Every structure is written in structure tokens, then in C-alpha cells.
Amino acid sequence: MEYYILIEEYLKKLSKMTVPDPMSIGTSVAGLCKFLRVAKVVAYFYDSFKDEAMGNGRSTCVYSTGEECTVALSDRLVTEVNSVAVCEVSIAKGAEPWSYTERERIMLVLKTTMTFISRLRLKQVTDMLSFYDADGFHNLRYFIGHLEKLALDDRLVGKVAILYNLKHFSLVNQQIGREAGNIAMKGYYETLRSDLDEEGTVCRMGGDNFVMICGRTELDRVLRYLAGSATIFDRDTGDRVMISACAGVFIIPEGFELTSPGDILDKIISASQSARQPQNDDVVYFNEVMVANKERAVHIQQLFPNALKNEEFLVYYQPKINVETGELTGAEALCRWLRSGSVVPPLEFIPILEQGNEICRLDFYMLDHVCRDIRRWLDEGRPVVRVSVNLSRKHMADVDLLKHIVEIIDRNRVPHEYIEIELTETTTDVEFRDLKRVVGGLQKTGVGTAVDDFGIGYSSLKLITEIPWDVLKVDRSFLPHEDEDENSNRAIMFSHVVSMAQKLGLECIAEGVETAKQVEILRENGCKYAQGFHFDRPLPVEQFEEKLTAHHYEV
Ligand code: C2E
Ligand code: MG
Ligand code: MG
Asked: Which of 390, 394, 421, 478 to mutate to test the pocket of ligand 1 (most atoms within 8 A of CB)?
């Protein structure tokens, strides 16, 4: 009778368990073990038959009286994925051997427990596969489930949905190594997650993009954390790296009804795309303007093919001047879109064309039109200068880029030295390698190369020492302002950048020169060339041709 009471108690406890925890199984089965004169129960788990044969597994002591004992019974269970569980039951040394009934009863308890454990483990595995990614982060499916659960319980309104993207994580990986980078990424995520209440969650969408839900009162703290937190990447030494993120935020308003999780995801995706733009803040709240922007972007992408065919894009030329002699020494070709009678500046359409690959077609179009102009100037006997053409980073993926550039220049019969290609800095090692290959290749063909906007991105010494550029274009943010003296940070940085360029044998040009005083600063620092509104804005071709003929500015 006692046996039946004990087994009923045990089964009740077992059925309440949600995880196969050996400790709680041990305490639950203790009564039965005592009754059946069991001294010890040990379970072994092997991930494969091979591991089992080599004794390469994990073991857990589920129950023990502490007496000296010998194994008297065992059971082996193979799961559907060929992992193996073995359970050994021992009897105390010198004890009277188990009767037939006792053995039967022990086997029954054993088999029931093993089946129960394997069912729970299977559930764990399927949960794991469904709701976690390969690196152990909660995944998007989990996030969607979480949203739906909150919506079902009317707990969604007032919550905050965030999509954040780790800033320059490829640089972090370069700095500390990929493995340490993984540890840091996980640590950054775990800390954020552990600070949320049970209605909050953080999940990885893929790569370095994460989505999360938090309460309104937690938002400030979360945003402070995302703005930058020192995160451990080496557990032994406790060494840390700074990790920060940019984020798109949507505060779920009163009356919001979730018809599909996409309603929320779409909003935080557009807000986060906006937060990723370098000119915007790192945190962008979703608003309806974004919907309009998105629609505009789609519209521009649709108009582009015909606009290109109809030659609606014009080349404007901005002169480059030698500040010592006043001589016009070159020009930068800048794109303008003549649309329905008005001139659209490039920042309104280039970032959109860069979302796809349309920008590459536009850049080749620009190069082609510049070459046509140069050819014409040569034929007309004008004094021709070298013209630089901007090339988007999107071209880096084109293995035939060099061939395409040279083909366009040669087709127009333009001597290579009249063309210069402007490229901006890169952030990843892969892009760096491509950039090095492209710039090195261009140098061999005699086409000039310039690193554009130097100083605002992730300029590294490596970028200018390992890549054979001809020209370094110092970004205008380095130019000291009117009210700053030579001891201002900007002035000090400027003079260092210029002298570094000189030492490396690079031609140095300052962009965005707007005042006579800035021209003076250029001269004082030995920066020989200038481009900027002080001399001229980007000009339509006819006006530029007049400047070409005049060829000199007052300095
Ligand atoms: P960028 O290549 O750095 O070009 C210089 C930008 O600075 C031009 O803006 C020019 O008008 C502006 N700028 C020149 N002098 C001054 C000044 O004194 N003060 C101020 N505040 N600005 C000055 P723009 O023409 O609006 O072009 C903006 C950017 O668009 C360019 O920056 C370039 O990144 C991109 N872009 C323009 N045309 C093309 C193109 O054909 N292909 C590609 N891929 N990008 C282009
Ligand atoms: Mg440029
Ligand atoms: Mg520039």
C-alpha cells in the first residue's frame, strides 16, 4: 500500500515539473528510493553513440544515501536524435539483494522517469530551435510571440518598441577579435535584458540588429545604456570595450491595435534606418514624416531609370584653386537633377539611390558626361584641368570596376591624367581590401585618386599609409571657424592633418573654404589647394567654361 501512495506522490510532483532538473527529481523520488532500498541513482547523458563509446558525456547524481554501494540495475534510452541517456541504480554493499517485485518496481520508476526527462528535454530542444538563434540569442520568432502575448492581455499600449543596431561593430571586431566581439555582444545584450521587467524582452533580428520591448519608465535608462556602455569582452581579465547603438523607437500609443506584428516592426525599422544615417541623431522616434520619406524614396527609385535615359542629371563643376597663385587647377564634378524645371541637390536623391545599386549607374553616367566635356574642351583648345568624379562605395563590390572606369575614359579618348576618382573611407576590413585594390589599380592606369571627406568617418592611419592615394581632401569640419584662433582644437587638428599629408607625399586640398580668413589659414599651414564657396559654388558647365578660360582667381 505504501508503495502505491509513494508512487502517486512521485508522479504528481513529476507532472508539475517544467524543466528536467536532477535536483528536484532527486528530492521527489527520495521517498520511493528509501522504500525500495535504493542507495544511489546516477544518470549519464551522451550527445552521440560515439561519445557514449568514449565515455565522453555528462553525469548527474540524482539520489544518494552516501553508503558504499554497487550498481545492480541500469536502463538505457536512445532519443530520436541519437543522443543517449543511461541511468544506473545501486544497492548498498552487503544489503539483501532486491526481490523480483522490487526489481520490477524500480524498473518501472526508472522507465517512467527516463521517458519524462526525455520528453522535457525534447521540449527544451524544440523551444531552443524555435525561439533562439544559433548563438543563443532570443530570435525574431520569440519577439513576435511576445508581442502577440502582450497584445492578447491588453498590455501593449504604453510599452516601447525599439530596434537598435550596434554602431561600427565590425570595428569592434577588428579591435578585439571576433571571438571577444561575440562575448561583448552577448554581454551587452544580457545586461540590457536582465534590467527589464518580465513584460520586456530583447531579441536578435540577425547580425548586429536587435529588437526589444520595454516599459515607458524604463526608456530613459535603456537609451542611456544604448548610448554607450563599457562591456566586458575578456572574462578572465575583465577587460572592457565601449559598445553603443543607434535606435529607432516607437512608443505604442493609446488606442493602438495590433493587427499584425509587422505593424510595429515596420515602424521601428523605418525609425532605425533614419537613426543610422550619419547626419541624424542616434535615437530617432517613429513619426509619420518617415512614412512620407519612405514613399518619396520609392518614388525617386521609380523615376530614376527614365530620368537617366532622358539625361535629366547634369554635371556641375566646382573649381579647385591653388591658394598661392590663384590658378584654377582642377574641378569636382557634382551631380544635379533637373526635374520639372527645378534643380534638385544630390543629398536629396543620392542617399536613396545608394540604398540600391542605382547609384552605380549614375556615377558611370557622370564619369561619361565629364569625359565628353573634357574631350570637347580639348578639341576646342581650352585650357583643360583635371576633374574629379565621386564614386559611391557601392562600387567596391564590382570586381570589374577598373575595367569599367578605363573603358569609359578611353571611349571618350580622354588622357587618363585628366580624371581623378574620389572615394570615401571604409569601415570594414573587407571594404578596406577592396579599396586598396581599386586605388592601386587606378594608380597603375594613371587615373588620379582622392580620399574624400577625410576626417569625418573612420579615418585610420592605415587608410592613408597603406593605400596609394594621390590627393587627400580634408573635410570642411576641420576648417577653423571665423571666431576660432590657432589654438582651437579644430585648428590644431587641421595643421596636423595637413602636415601628415605632406609627409606622406599627398596633395592636400581643403573642402568647404568659405572665407578669406580660411584661405589665409590654408596658406599658413601649407595646404596648397582649396575648394569652396569663397571661390565658387558648383557651376553649370557654361559658367565653368568661362572660369576655365579666365583660369585665375584673385587671392
Ligand atoms: P562631396 O563629394 O564632399 O562634395 C562636396 C560638397 O560640398 C558639395 O555638395 C559642395 O557643393 C559642397 N560645398 C563645396 N564648397 C562648400 C562650402 O564652401 N561650404 C559648404 N557648406 N558646402 C560646400 P553637393 O554638391 O550638395 O554634394 C553633396 C555630396 O553628394 C557630395 O559630397 C558627394 O558625396 C555626393 N555627390 C554629389 N555628386 C555625386 C555623384 O555624382 N556621385 C556620387 N556617388 N556622389 C555624389
Ligand atoms: Mg567629393
Ligand atoms: Mg567631400
From this structure: 390
Q: How far apart are CA 276 and CA 354, in angstroms?
A: 14
**Ligand 1: which of 314, 350, 479 to mutate, judged by most atoms within 8 Å of the beta carbon?**
350
Minimum CA distance residue for ligand 1 atom 19: 512
- How many whole angstroms separate alpha carbon 18 and alpha carbon 123? 9
32-36, 263-267, 274-278: least confidently modelled range: 274-278
Q: Distances in Å between the alpha carbon of 127 and those of 121, 131, 156, 174?
A: 10, 6, 24, 34
The Cα–Cα gap between 43 and 76 comes to 10
Q: Got the DSSP string for 366-412?
A: HHHHHHHHHHHHHHHT----EEEEE--GGGGG-TTHHHHHHHHHHHT
Helix (H) or strand (E) holding 507: strand 507-511
Q: In degrees to the nearest 10, what's the CA dihedral of 372, 375, 379, 383?
A: 120
At residue 429 the predicted structure's pLDDT band, cuts being 50, 70 and 90, is: confident
User: Ligand 1 in contact with 363 (CB < 6 A)?
Assistant: yes
CA distances from 37 to 117, 174, 197 (A): 23, 61, 46
Q: DSSP of 10-48, one letter per residue?
A: HHHHHHH-SS--HHHHHHHHHHHHHHTT--EEEEEEESS
The string of pLDDT tens digits covering residues 36-78 is 999 999 999 888 888 899 998 888 899 999 999 999 999 998 8
pLDDT tens-digit series, residues 438-495: 999 999 999 999 999 998 766 677 888 899 999 999 999 889 887 888 788 888 889 9
* Interval 133-151 mean pLDDT: 92
Closest CA to ligand 1's atom 24: 346
Domains of the chain, with CATH numbers?
2-131 (3.30.450), 140-286 (3.30.70.270), 295-550 (3.20.20.450)
Question: What cell numbers appear for 478 in the block?
Answer: 576641420
**What is the pLDDT of the chain when averaged over all its residues?**
92
Q: Distance from the CA of 334 to the center of ligand 1, in angstroms? A: 6
